[in-house]
Amino acid sequence: MKNLLKTLVPVALAVAALCAGARDFPGSKTVTLVVPFTAGGPTDRVARDLAEAMRKPLGGAVVVVDNAAGAGGSIGANKVAKAPADGYTLLLHHIGMATMPTLVRNIPFKVESDFEYVGLVNDVPMTVIAKPALPANNYRELVSWVNANKGKINLGNAGVGSASHLCGMLFQQALGVEMTAVPYKGTAPAMTDLMGGQIDLMCDQTTNTTGQIEAKKVKAYAVTSPKRLTTPALKDLPTMQEVGAKDFSVSIFHGLYAPKGTPAPVLKKLNDALKVALKDPEFIKKQEGTGAVVVTDQRMEPAGHKAFVAAEIAKWSPVIKAAGVYVD
């Protein structure tokens, strides 16, 4: 009996301390939001907007962004997967959570079982864009130009496994035309070369392209959302489904994750704070200004978020396998 008590008392004390910590969360401690990409990119911008929007509903807590880039987003994700499960280290990741299981070789964690799903943040559609000198002025003319220039088209992307790379693969499938993929180290250099005419086409997030489209530095032909967008610079662009690519729908979603085992009361506080942030008029304004759509459906709940990512994994796995692209 004494040995049993010696075992149970420390456990009971640990549980009591954990419950007390969850009740007081986050208190005066800083919450770190890990972004698995470099500063200044689209996911980083979403993270910084979200950090500010969640500060008040978390009782005025300091929420800082930590950029941990590399290996297709798996370095930052692994950092969170291995962090203490106390709610103070979170992950903001995009569609990479659905592509990493297939794309990244020897991934050091399991997306579906090594994280707690807090909720989805937004959907970010893609845009099909081209260098300003491309002669096509609408999507129909673009298809004609592509068919007339088979074997000579350069399709830029932000790197192997990036959102623009994935979208580009689907775009080629939709047109039935193979193009020369030109990977860059990020969207910025790819966009610079597209505007300068060194590459012909690119398919990238509205968060990266809206400003360039508005300034007429690139030509835009279509969006990959299920319906047209309301952003002024994009509202006249047809969807890919409108122009005949019925199964072409790509959303570069962003979601919030915590380490597996984070206490349920802490997760509830995080989810409650997230839902308040998603209704913040300033946050919504910032997202809509770049063409992103703030989540309002069941995916803002942990269960809905997890089910959505599982469906996206099933969607992208065959596409990546068929393309034979991997990140070491």
Automatic annotation (TrEMBL):
Belongs to the UPF0065 (bug) family. Residues 1-22 form the signal peptide. Pfam families: TctC. It comes from the Bacteria. It comes from Ramlibacter terrae. Keywords: Signal. This is Tripartite tricarboxylate transporter substrate binding protein BugD. InterPro entries: BUG (IPR005064), Bug_dom1 (IPR042100).
